[in-house]
């Protein structure tokens, strides 16, 4: 055992850092809950009062602002380090299907925080959620529980000039580096005749990955980096394109230096936890 790990000053520093991590975790969750719940309550009357052509831009601007405040606060307290500036190049690019990989729950927040004209396909349970549901409906976000309706709405949003956030995996990654890609992105892009812009989200932590409990403390700071990938033209055959897209993500992510496999990231977390306890 290293002397600095066993010594009282070294052990004290590690316990203080552990307390800081708990404080940062609860601060972040509390801030996000407060911001989203407040906007959700304001969104209810606005949804019924404002015409759609005013409601959707306002709703999307508000969600982008809320997420920027939240991520900025996490960075300010030192819980996370974000490098999201690559997304800014897409802001004035017009209609695109934005297709990132999906390692954790923060992925959508990071993308939306930089791209205000974004329609988002959401799980129906989230659209019905008290914290984010009313704001999502005001912003014109799309439920994923009726596939035909979801595709029609997505195509309509793209034809009206919006960008569309869609995770090709359909859920958070469980098979590193990416789950099998579904054909939804290809089908929507083909019908709307818009390109698919790939986006790579890299992180060195398993925080909020599939199976990570919401209130489990991660090792901090956590690093997130987003970089842009290849832009694909609207595909002709969804099945063939989905296989090509999956191979492309695998090739790009498998050797990404800042993208740890979930098992490796969890091993890092466990090892850090043992050091915090002085073992």
Task: Describe, in short, the structure shown.
The chain is 51% helix and 13% strand.
Describe this protein's structure.
The protein has 10 helices and 7 strands. Residues 275-279 have low confidence and may be disordered. The protein has one domain (3-276): Glycerol-3-phosphate (1)-acyltransferase. The chain has helices spanning 3-6, 8-49, 52-76, 107-112, 124-127, 133-138, 147-159, 184-192, 238-254, 262-276, and strands at residues 80-83, 97-100, 118-122, 142-143, 163-165, 196-203, 222-232. It has a 7-stranded mixed beta sheet, sandwiched between helices. The chain is of the alpha/beta class. 51% of the residues lie in helices and 13% in strands.
Round the Cα radius of gyration to an integer and report it.
20 Å
Mean pLDDT: 90
Helix content: 40-55%
Q: Regions with pLDDT < 50 over 5+ consecutive residues?
A: 275-279
| Tally of helical runs | 10
Set down the secondary structure blueprint.
Layout: H1 3-6, H2 8-49, H3 52-76, E1 80-83, E2 97-100, H4 107-112, E3 118-122, H5 124-127, H6 133-138, E4 142-143, H7 147-159, E5 163-165, H8 184-192, E6 196-203, E7 222-232, H9 238-254, H10 262-276
Parallel strand pairs: 1-7, 2-5, 2-6, 3-4, 3-5
Antiparallel strand pairs: 6-7
Which labels suit this protein?
7-stranded mixed sheet, 279 residues, disordered C terminus, single chain, 10 helices, globular, Glycerol-3-phosphate (1)-acyltransferase, alpha/beta
């Amino acid at each position: 055992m290293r002397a600095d790990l066993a010594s009282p000053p070294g052990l004290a520093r590690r316990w203080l850092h552990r307390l800081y991590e708990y404080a940062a975790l609860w601060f972040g969750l509390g801030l996000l809950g407060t911001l989203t719940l407040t906007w959700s309550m304001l969104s209810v009357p606005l949804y019924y009062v404002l015409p759609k052509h005013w409601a959707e831009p306002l709703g999307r601007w508000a969600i982008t602002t809320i997420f920027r405040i939240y991520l900025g606060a996490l960075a300010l307290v030192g819980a996370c380090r974000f490098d999201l500036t690559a997304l800014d190049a897409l802001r004035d690019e017009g209609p695109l299907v934005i297709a990132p990989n999906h390692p954790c729950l923060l992925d959508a927040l990071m993308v939306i925080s930089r791209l205000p004209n974004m329609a988002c396909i959401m799980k129906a349970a989230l659209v019905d959620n008290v914290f984010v549901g009313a704001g999502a409906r005001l912003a014109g976000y799309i439920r994923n529980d009726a596939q035909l309706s979801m595709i029609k709405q997505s195509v309509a949003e793209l034809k009206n000039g919006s960008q569309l956030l869609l995770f090709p995996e359909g859920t958070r990654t469980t098979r590193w580096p990416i789950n099998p890609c579904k054909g939804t992105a290809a089908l929507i892009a083909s019908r709307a005749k818009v390109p698919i812009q790939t986006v790579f989200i890299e992180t060195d932590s398993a925080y909020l990955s599939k199976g990570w409990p919401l209130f489990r403390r991660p090792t901090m700071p956590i690093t997130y980096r987003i970089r842009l990938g290849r832009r694909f033209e609207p595909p002709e055959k969804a099945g063939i394109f989905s296989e090509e897209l999956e191979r492309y993500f695998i090739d790009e992510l498998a050797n990404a230096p800042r993208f740890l496999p979930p098992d490796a990231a969890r091993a890092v977390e466990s090892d850090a936890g043992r050091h915090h306890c002085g073992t």
